[in-house]
Amino acid sequence: MTNKEIYKKTLVFSVKRLLFNTLCIVIVAVLATVGFVLLEKLSDKGLIGLGIGLVLGIIIVAVLAHFMAYTYQAGQIAMMTRAVTEGSLPDDVYGEGKRIVKEKFLTVAIYYAATRIIKRIFDEIGKLITGAGKAIGGDTGEGIAGAINIGIQVVIGFLSDCCLGWVFFRKDLSSGRATLEGAGIFFKHGKTLIRNLGRIFGMGIASLALIGGAFFGIFYLIFSSFPEMFRGLSNEIVQVVQKEGEQVSIWISDPGHLGIIIAGVLAFIIWLIIHGAFIRPFILVGVLRNYMEAGMAHIPTESELAEVAQKSRKFADLQKEVDKA
Predict the structure, then answer these.
(1) Can you give the pTM of this predicted structure?
(2) d(CA 276, CA 272)
(3) Which of 41, 42, 223, 291 could form a disulfide with 259 if both were Cys (CB 3.0 to 4.6 A apart)?
(4) What confidence tier does 119 reach under pLDDT thresholds 50, 70, 90?
């Protein structure tokens, strides 16, 4: 199967993920609006009501996401992995993806424990790489390290997904043992896998400009139709800032500028959702294929894993736990 075919066949996970995220946005928006309107009418403290509504909405969404959202991403990775390694997918891609995730991770707690371990190992790998920038010394070294770290964190997200795909692929092994192999694959083929960096950032920047820019324009036009609402919100924020003895910025004292900030934030959030649901999976298929092909060509040996353990403490800790089990 080609990358495009795999993407199309697994698109059902992206659609369900988008619908779920849309529901979450609606929940937060409704609760924040209700909180603002109620307290604004009752005590002229709409900003406090807005904050209460936001906090309540975020808590509800966090609970929902913890128990539901993981299936969409993990199921999609599982099915992409099968397509890359076996060259075919079943008719009921969504149902099979859910089944595999539930079979590999019997509970939600086990899933998050496994993915947390994967991310910690790759985070540590990222720190090893950014250490090269700091070694240069001075402000230049810090700047280089910071720039490298931003790029590495994005790559780590993809590599963590690839490692999870390896866990699904090595279904006869425990999640811990498969994770060790997955990290070992990166150490052995890191230079090859890092070449995906240009594609990852190129498509990311393009989608931010197109999707984020479009929604920024839409929100700005909508907000321009409600100047009184932003004037009231701006006045409340200014009063709070002045009570704290802080200097009032023009970006919050001017209703027009405040509208621009809020439009920008909302556009960025929506870009994150759409990019995560549709653009990122398309990029992931290519990265995952390179990763799986490298791993299948040469599964890391015990001696190679021992070398990785010398470089990564978290890897070594997991290896000890796996050996004891």
Answers:
(1) 0.82
(2) 6
(3) 223
(4) confident
Q: How would residue 279 be classed by pLDDT, with cut points 50, 70 and 90?
A: very high
Cα separation of 292 and 307, whole Å?
Answer: 21
User: By the 8 A CB rule, do 288 and 193 touch?
Assistant: no
Cα–Cα distance between 124 and 133 in angstroms, integer? Answer: 15
**Nearest of 221, 232, 316 to residue 266 by alpha carbon:** 221
Q: Are 104 and 301 in contact (CB under 8 A)?
A: no
Phi, psi (rounded to 5 degrees) for 130 = -70, -20
**Tokens encoding 279:** 């653009």
Asked if 89 and 82 touch (Cβ cutoff 8 Å), the reply is yes
Quickly list H helices, 170-196. Answer: 175-194
Half-sphere exposure of 122 (CA within 13 A, CB side): 26
Residue type, 99: R
The angle that helices 138-169 and 93-104 make with each other, rounded to 10 degrees, is 100
Please work out, in degrees rounded to the nearest 5, the angle formed at the alpha carbon of residue 87 by the alpha carbons of 81 and 88: 90
